[in-house]
Design goal:
The chain is α/β, with parallel strands linked by helices and 180 residues long. The chain has one domain: 3-Layer(aba) Sandwich (Dihydrofolate Reductase, subunit A). It has 6 helices and 10 strands; from the N terminus they run ββααβααββαβαββββ. Strands 5-4-3-6-1-7-10-9 form an 8-stranded mixed beta sheet. The longest helix is centred in the middle third of the chain and has 12 residues. The model has no long low-confidence stretch (mean pLDDT 85). This is Riboflavin biosynthesis protein RibD. It comes from Novosphingobium pentaromativorans US6-1.
């Protein structure tokens, strides 16, 4: 599993209003993006991340990750089911555990990509399934909001294996440390 996440310099993935701090233009300029897309066989995201797109039909024709998407939602699926295509299908599930298991089956030989807000990142870290983390540190402070990492999260198990900078962020690829 690969985690893809971003944090402000003061440690928040969303500001006090709940808005994501990710500058999409900086993400798209980073050379780390295409290898991430190539490695991905399925996506797990929270319902909150799914709801950030104004028109959910956008995913089917525009999202660079044309793979099955598993959305964790303690609510019911959206009133109007989003458009799908032959590669991109949506699955709305109740728990991250179920989403990670189903995504792993769907991904086959490729990686499951856990994206989005703190709940997804923290669930992926706590699952012990994450082998890589692609972390963007955004060059701004929010002064508060939703912290990306909470106490007791196993971030110490990772080391930085690649770094790239863009004007708005530092993009790091972290890999799980293998104990001998």
């Amino acid at each position: 599993m690969i985690i893809d996440a971003a944090t402000s310099m003061d440690g928040f993935c969303a500001d006090a209003r709940g808005q994501s701090i990710i500058p999409i233009e900086a993400l798209n300029r980073a050379d780390l993006r295409q290898p991430l897309v190539s490695a991905c066989g399925a996506v797990v995201m929270s319902r909150r991340s799914f709801d950030t797109v104004t028109d959910p039909d956008w995913f089917a024709d525009n999202y660079e990750l044309q793979v099955p998407i598993f959305v964790v939602s303690d609510d019911s699926p959206p009133a109007r089911y989003p458009k799908e295509n032959e590669r991109l299908r949506f699955h709305f599930l109740d728990t991250f555990t179920e989403a990670f298991e189903r995504a792993e089956q769907a991904a086959g030989e490729k990686a499951v990509l856990a994206i989005g807000e703190a709940s997804t990142v923290q669930a992926a870290l706590l699952s012990g399934m994450a082998d890589e983390m692609w972390l963007r540190v955004i060059a701004k402070e929010t002064g508060g909001g939703t912290p990306l990492f909470g106490p007791g999260k196993p971030g110490k198990e990772f080391f930085v294996s690649a770094v790239e900078t863009t004007p708005g962020a530092v993009h790091m690829k972290l890999e799980r440390r293998v104990e001998h």
